[in-house]
Amino acid sequence: MENRDEYYMRLAIQEAVKAQRLREVPIGAVIVLDEKVIAAAHNLRETTQRAAAHAELLAIEKACEVTGSWRLENAELYVTLEPCPMCSGAVLQSRIKRVVYGAKDPKAGCAGSLMNLLEDGRFNHRSEVVSGVLETECGELLRSFFRSLREKKKKEKLAAEEDGKSSTN
């Protein structure tokens, strides 16, 4: 039987799939309070051309609207990819109690990979971190997205080279 962390992570994965359909990096997030999803979001950085349009930040904004407060002290964030420094900072600032993520991010992860901002005792707030929930599924979404992107760029490069050859003949 699926546990509650897996249940909510599957909802975050559904959000990530929405991002993928928009040709966004497939990252999804949900925020849970009192066993209810109060916010859900997916990456929209390419769509909006806003550097801060990460799934976590968009979900935090929605959760604050729903609760009428910037304090999300009893809320839990479920996200398909380990939060980056910016998102980890927003988690701390919004006082989210617990962060559950799927895939590790060795290049920008700040919930255990590069560093762990969320459990750093120097801050006035700490969030409990649970990693690796449905890690395989979350990681495969990202791997297949980037594989597809690389193949597309390779085809475009080959097509451009062919066009260059035919214009010189």
TrEMBL record:
InterPro entries associated with the record? APOBEC/CMP_deaminase_Zn-bd, CMP_dCMP_dom, Cytidine_deaminase-like, MafB19-deam, tRNA_aden_deaminase
Gene3D superfamilies, alphabetized: Cytidine Deaminase, domain 2 (3.40.140.10)
Q: How is the cofactor bound?
A: Binds 1 zinc ion per subunit.
What highest taxon heads this organism's lineage?
A: Bacteria
Please give the Gene Ontology molecular function terms for this protein.
Answer: tRNA-specific adenosine-34 deaminase activity; zinc ion binding
EC identifiers of the protein: 3.5.4.33
Under what name is this protein listed? tRNA-specific adenosine deaminase
Organism source for this protein?
Heyndrickxia coagulans (Weizmannia coagulans)
